[in-house]
Amino acid sequence: MKILVCIANVPDTTAKINFTPDNKEFVSTGVTFILNPYDEIALSKAVDLTTGGGTVTVINIGDASTEPTIRKALAIGATDAVRVNSKPRDGYFVARQIAEYVKTNPFDLILCGRESSDSNGSSVPAMLAELLGIPCVLFAKRLTIEGTTATLEQEIEGGKEILSSPLPLVAGASEGMAEWKIPNMRGIMSARTKPLVVIEPIEVPQHTTVKSYDKPIPRSSVKLIAAEDAGKLFDMLRDEKKVI
Description:
244 residues, alpha/beta, Rossmann fold, 9-stranded mixed β-sheet, two-stranded antiparallel ribbon, 6 helices, 11 strands, globular
């Protein structure tokens, strides 16, 4: 089985985020970047599925600064890697680059994280599947393969949904699909020599532009109320428009 895993290089979830004074660009100076956690789940599942035989290729859209993240993916268990030499402009740009690669390098299964932890868009898997004309299950918590058929489980309101699909397909990994794998010393050493191919991006129309970024409103200070004045809580919430 040939599996492709799409990986993103994202800021560490504990990093302090800042933007330029005009709020138009993210300031990456001093920020540690990591393998997107949902993509890491997808990669771990791919490694599990190919334990008895098969290959796992990881693909990333990014400049040379993303290569440490790619090498980590190789250390976890990927067979080889591809880097499209361009910064990821938006979800459509990323999906088009991956689709172009897959059209000339077909795979039995394509795994992505359900979303990236920086954009939280959940758009790439569905767009990629549409561009390739294959099925997509976005929030997959379970995945099994039998022959050329995949069985997937995803959560829905009030329960879960079991789906089956012929291969190839695109699946977006959620928590529960696999346990994260910690690279061992052998994996780290072998990652240095595994193939990493760099390709140039294709031209893609730009349909979206970022106007500005905004940070969440800072949390207000805690207000303490004496136990005997608990009834005032509702008045305070109503005055601050927290309740109607």
